[in-house]
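Side project, low priority. Logging it here so it doesn't get lost.
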Amino acid sequence: MHAFTLLATVAAPAQKIGQHAPSTPGIGGALVGLILVLGLILGLAWLLKRLPGAGLGIRPSEQLRVVSMLSVGAKERVMVIEVGKEQLLIGVSAGGITALHTLPEPLVVAPAPTMPNFAELLAKRLRKES
């Protein structure tokens, strides 16, 4: 009888290896997952824009602005800032910020110089060289 059971086990069909393992998602499942992740990112970005104070101070302030700045060293600057209607001269260094002076009259901010058109400058330069 022992030979009969051995013959029966040999003759039995072999089971596939990994037949019980879960199948991997197809391209459709991967696309659905990608769309869900992108939607989540866009939804969170929209939510951060709508929540007050969520910008963590990144938004420009209407009450505080830099009027002028001058670099006086590798990590040192002198700045004129406007706080409300008042302008302050401050020193900024690696060690901290120091109020140097309160300006009695506000500085007049000169308009930024307009840069000439690059195409015009190039054409002018090429005419001079030829």
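Brief comment: Helices lie at 2-11, 27-50, 118-129.
Revisit when time allows.
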